[in-house]
Amino acid sequence: MKEINIGLIGFGTIGTGVVKLLRQNEDLISKKLGAKLVLKKIADIDVTTPRTIKVNKSLLTTNALEIINDKDISIVIELMGGYEPARTFLLKAIDNGKHVVTANKALLATHGNEIFPAAQKKAVDIGFEASVGGTIPIIKTLKESLAANRINSIMGIMNGTCNFILTKMTDEDKPFDTVLKEAQRLGFAEADPTFDIEGIDTSHKMAIILSLAYGKRVNLKDIYLEGITKISRDDIAFARELGYRIKLLAIAILKNGAVEARIHPTMIPSSHLLANVNQNYNAFHIMGDASGPVFLFGQGAGMMPTASAVFSDIIDSARNVLNGANSRGPLRSISETAMTQIKLIPMDDVETKYYFRFSALDRPGVLSKISGILGQNNISIAACIQKARGKRGAVPIVMTTYKAKERDVRKALRRIDKLDIAHGETMLIRVEDDLN
User: Fold this and answer.
1) Do 363 and 421 form a contact (C-beta atoms < 8 A)?
2) Measured distance CA(111)–CA(106) in Å, rounded
3) How far apart are the first and last CA of the chain?
4) What is the structure's pLDDT at 329?
5) What is the pLDDT of residue 392?
6) Could you give all domains of the chain from N- to C-terminal order, each with its CATH number?
7) Dihedral over Cα of 335, 340, 341, 343: its sign
8) Higher pLDDT, 361 or 67
9) Average per-residue pLDDT in the chain?
10) pTM score
11) Cis bond upstream, residue 85 (ω within 30)
12) Which residues are catalytic?
């Protein structure tokens, strides 16, 4: 049986999973591929710390160039993460004519517009299924299964840490800080959770998804972003009373040739599939013009789920090696030379429904002042909840609106927050009812 040599850069959690999966299912993989994958070399800055799987010491090196410059290695797997030296290693491997596989979402979101054209020029593959959604085949779905579709919308839960936190807050009535500590203890959140809870991790994934869905170059900084750190138990409770659950949602909507691209906490109807994606799971709701709704659900992270996605790309590239072929199609949705810059709709021009939680003095005329300012800014109230009447001090007033423009909402809230009856900044959460 023909052998295909592969090299692994990065022997952390996911790298360990890749080695484990190759050992565990080697016969199955060989039968499906029609060739044997041989792990020739593993590079990592730390080759002494014991892993959960043992490998021969002769396989280990601290010098990634031993893999990149090895003419007998056909596929380079980059699982070290970060920007540098990962970017340099990938570009060098590409320049050496090697197929590459990576799970490095941050690198592709930030430097993809450099890396993908370089790979196309050298006629090599870049496999990056594991960069978004863990084991969920979202990349192949957009590149292949839905290739003939105009993608009208994508809504995704793309970060397991945030979803775990919001699930616990909703189902167990726990405060944010308590649940965050639990997520860290269980290994769902890093010691520094900023990338997760502030939505940065989701924005990296969103940039990749946008480039695939619309065949356009995307600048990461142009995607609107809010994290979940301001969500309180009060907001969770009011959402439940109104028939919603709160999720950190990545939203892309095609409108007249331009795209809304935004990431923020979102209230969605509690009956919708996305609202019932809980714990650390991820999900994607895609609307194609021909396909109709497509729903993908699964583990968004973890050693073995992510290793599974990595191997889907390894096997794809190995099949090309066997057939002496280049990639079967564009690395992203269309040829890199045909890509143009995506046109994103400014957040100020976005129209959606809103939830407001005001903290205001309980006195006559408060509601009329607030509703008056909203009305003056073209914002119509759909529902109102006022509790704790008769108590001294500030009380919560909750309102939901019909569709309004973000610019008008921001202008109205700036005025309301300056009123002498208002205590603190108004809490705003966007509401998405139009989920098919």
Assistant:
1) yes
2) 8
3) 49
4) 78
5) 61
6) 3-134+303-336 (3.40.50.720), 138-299 (3.30.360.10), 348-431 (3.30.70.260)
7) negative
8) 67
9) 94
10) 0.94
11) yes
12) 205
What stretches of 233-391 show up as alpha helix (H) in DSSP?
A: 233-242, 303-323, 366-376
Helix (H, G, I), strand (E, B), or coil: what is residue 118?
helix
Residue 388's CB is within 10 A of a number of other CB atoms, namely 12
pLDDT at 365: 80
Can you tell me the distance from the alpha carbon of 226 to that of 41, in angstroms, rounded to the nearest whole number?
A: 41
Burial letters 278-290, b for 16+ CB under 10 A, else e? bebbbbbbbbbee
Sheet containing 36-43, strands listed edge to edge, beginning at the edge strand earlier in sequence:
60-61, 36-43, 3-9, 73-78, 99-102, 126-127
Nearest to 35 by CA among 310, 331, 326, 317: 317
Q: Hey, what are 228's tokens? A: 């979940």
The DSSP secondary structure of 32-89, one letter per residue, reads: HHTSEEEEEEEE-S--SSPPSS---GGGEES-THHHHT-TTEEEEEE---SSTTHHHH
Across 44-52, average pLDDT? 93
Instruction: Supply the pLDDT for residue 421.
Output: 84
Q: Could you give the CA distance from residue 60 to residue 51 in angstroms, rounded to a whole number?
A: 12
Q: What percent of the chain has pLDDT over 70?
A: 98
